[in-house]
Design goal:
- 44% of the residues lie in helices and 19% in strands.
- It is α/β, with parallel strands linked by helices.
- The protein has a single domain (5-121), classed as 3-Layer(aba) Sandwich (Rossmann fold), CATH 3.40.50.
- The protein has a 5-stranded parallel sheet with strand order 2-1-3-4-5, sandwiched between helices.
- Helix 2 packs parallel to helix 3.
- The model has no long low-confidence stretch (mean pLDDT 93).
- The modification 4-aspartylphosphate is found at residue 55.
- This is Two-component system response regulator.
Length: 126
């Protein structure tokens, strides 16, 4: 089985590092990081990850805008996206599902269960 490749788009380097370490350690996935929406879009095009973890609240281009641009791009529109967000309410989850976002994971997340949460949302086996 091929190693899964995850793109983490978050403006906080600490979050990028924690996600990278736990996903590589727990699930043996390859993790690519980006610090902004525009950098993330560029990396998604060139790297073609199996999934994207996307922060909602970022300066310049927020996660929802970034997601829209990923969806509008034929090269990235089929990559599943999971949001990382500090606030999740029931109506947010409904809106995200309508947009085509796989799920949302609350920040701060538990590093030990992050890989399982991603795998469960995408029907992957670890």
């Amino acid at each position: 089985m091929m190693t899964k490749r995850i793109l983490v788009i978050d403006n906080e380097e600490y979050i990028q590092e924690v996600a990278k370490i736990c996903l590589e350690t727990v699930a043996c996935w390859q993790v690519i990081t980006a610090g902004s929406g525009s950098e993330g879009i560029s990396k998604a095009e060139t790297e073609q990850p199996d999934a994207i973890l996307l922060d909602v609240m970022m300066p310049d281009m927020d996660g929802i805008t970034t997601f829209g641009k990923l969806q509008a791009n034929p090269a990235t529109q089929n990559i599943p996206v999971i949001l990382l967000t500090a606030k999740i309410q029931a109506n947010d989850r409904d809106r995200y599902a309508e947009l085509g976002i796989k799920t949302a994971i609350a920040k701060p997340f538990d590093p030990l269960t992050l890989a399982n949460q991603i795998a469960e949302a995408l029907n992957w086996h670890i």
